[in-house]
Amino acid sequence: MLVQIDDANGVRTLTLNRPEALNAFNEALYDATTIALRDADEDPTVAVVLLTGAGRAFSAGNDLVEMQARITDPAFQSGQYGFAGMIDTLTALRKPLILAVNGLGVGIGATILGYADLVFMSTSARLKCPFTSLGVAPEAASSYLLPQLVGRQNAAWMLLSSEWVDAAEAQRMGFAWKVCEPDALLAEAARHADILASRSIPSLIAVKQTMVDPTRSEITAAATREYAQFAELLGGAANADALAAFAERRGS
């Protein structure tokens, strides 16, 4: 099961479950996560969604093997929902979303933080937006959401540098609300999720709607701009070199 689903006290915990690939998102995981998020949003017994990762990573981002196949394999098959479907679902999500970032978060594993209502990070977790090192554009409306979340200069460093940011720095910047020891992370995130889930679900939805509605059109516009830039750069010289280098390291 690519996404493990557990229910308790009105909290639905979704665990990305591709640990052998550091929970990197291939088409199948994008589809499974999209379906799980939509089901949670539509289930009247679910008040809060808690998302985490299995193993030592939260998510290593886009599966670069599939990214290369998208460029080189004429028979490459996109998923039912894919990346765009998951982003649309996150944008429309009505219920509170809590992230428990248990390990490294790369690419979408970092930019997804822009959609969270609360973020808990393990002290051992790190974030990276590797777009410039891969020769591509930002994704997931991060060019809009990250400046909103952490300010222009913190966002600029994350998006332009392709450097790692550790948990303490992520909290200082504003990416994370709480930083916890690894063994305490999920319990602490679940404790706060339980508090929210004890409240009225229609009220939770109303609060989130009033907070998020003003930004949804901006998120959609930013994603559209990013898709255009990404399509232009994907398969270009810098991107092709980066993917070839990745394939060489993987094969050695």
UniProtKB/TrEMBL annotation:
PANTHER family: ENOYL-COA DELTA ISOMERASE 2 (PTHR43684:SF1), PTHR43684. GO terms for molecular function: delta(3)-delta(2)-enoyl-CoA isomerase activity. It comes from Mycolicibacterium hodleri. Keywords: Isomerase, Peroxisome. Its main location: other. It is found in: Peroxisome. This is Enoyl-CoA hydratase/isomerase family protein. Pfam families: ECH_1 (PF00378). It comes from the Bacteria.
